[in-house]
Amino acid sequence: MGFAMAVLAGAAAMTxxxxxxxxxxxxxxxxxxxxxxxxxxxxxxxxMPGGRMVGMYVHQHWPYNHPYAxxxxxxxxxxxxxxxxxxxxxxxxxxxxxxxxxxxxLTPSDRASLxxxxxxxxxxxxxxxxxVYIVICPNISAKNEEARKATFExxxxxxxxxxxxxxxxxxxxxxxxxxxxxxxxxxxxxxxAIIDSDPGxxxxxxxxxxxxxxxxxxxxFDRVRPGIELLxxxxxxxxxxxxxxxxxxxxxLGTPAEHEETVKLLMAKNPEPWGMAxxxxxxxxxxxxxxxxxxxxxxxxxxxxxxxxxxxxxxxYAGASSDAPRGVMGNAQTHCVQLPNTFAFSRGxxxxxxxxxxxxxxxxxxxxxxxxxxxxxxxxxxGGDAQPMLTSAVALERIASTKPEGGRLKGLLFxxxxxxxxxxxxxxxxxxxIEEFAAAVSSGSNPKAALKSVIDHAGAWQKVHxxxxxxxxxxxxxxxAKFDHPAIKNYxxxxxxxxxxxxxxxxxxxxxxxxxxxxxTHTLRLLDAMKQLHASLP
Length: 538
What we know:
Number of domains: 2
CATH topology of the largest domain: TIM Barrel
Radius of gyration: 23 Å
Order of helices and strands: EHEHEEHHEHEHEHHEHEHEHHHHHHHHHH
Distance between the termini: 44 Å
């Protein structure tokens, strides 16, 4: 789901060194087919094949700056962004309100956030005719004293997360009762997705205990507003994630047999109305395939990741393809940055090609008259040559100086075409600096000046967006790993797995939660480690 997440394309993908990478075979341009080039017509959700769900997951785990972090969005921001999505063909929004970190009693900022999400749900229903779901993690509550130390907008998730033992009926009832209070401001939501892992889980807990937890939520939803759909989000597996806490390793995630057991137990409860995210093969076997939505994670953007525009249109386009009867859900972390892959996902979901004219039309719908330059910048950013990146950066700076207006899809720009252009410029300069640093290390030349450029440009961009969690850049990581420097080695030592024996008297459960908390500020530690390395170079 994202928290530690989206690195779950496989077990090893949860480590820092294995964040999912875009495919190496070409780029979005390769998706062009032999058809008469047509600029995007916009369309709306009704134009989607069969009226199937085409959704965007708006993830709010990470506290950083506006408008990069969804936590900071205003109702107007939501209106504009959703309006842009609707024009691309999206018809569903999934939101994680992070109710799990909200203390009892609520702080003013938490209360304001819940009320805002309630208004957003109503706005999406009435103005955009969109379906709206929210996410709840299975057995997580807040450490109240820790949660009160920060506002909702600035609170780190793993600083205040606490897990509730699903075998403890008193603790479980207390959790569900509190969630009933939290649900009231968002009661008009169409459904609630409850994930089976990441975060959540308990060492040694059974699938039966997980399904009992789902059933307790079903009864609670009925008290809040009858008709709220319960979605079981099949992910790493309740038992699989429990084994992570038991062993410290991610090579024992949920098996097909365990997933099937969970579905059978849920079918026996029959907590109508209910559906499932993922698990189509099992659902077909059990005759419930009509309940399935495909949550195709990580196709638009991996989570958590340092904000950087992806231009991997082939991956995003193919990632929107699914046989799930109810449709498909994409996801992003920094939505205002991931526009090209969002477009590619929408085209793939609609089964429409992406020609060169489509790409130019989309970019031109963002800022009229400058589609060619924007598209060139996206392509150069995805390449491996520093000079074209710098050339695009200069071109975008010139465009930004004219203060251009937004176009038909300006809602995706969150009110500022200039910010969008400046952001892309900063990303280009950071990526160019990393290419030059990696080349210097590879050639054996003195990399000190190139490393200073990385520190300066990455640090400047980080100050703008404020993201602090995981930063994985394969070229940067590979180059840094060649240095035998204690700060760099210490940085690499913290992963989502526990790779060394735990300290005496400490469990894997505690060690993993400690690592998750450390990763909340991973970017800041990497910037500091690079500064220490730079100071040590001749």
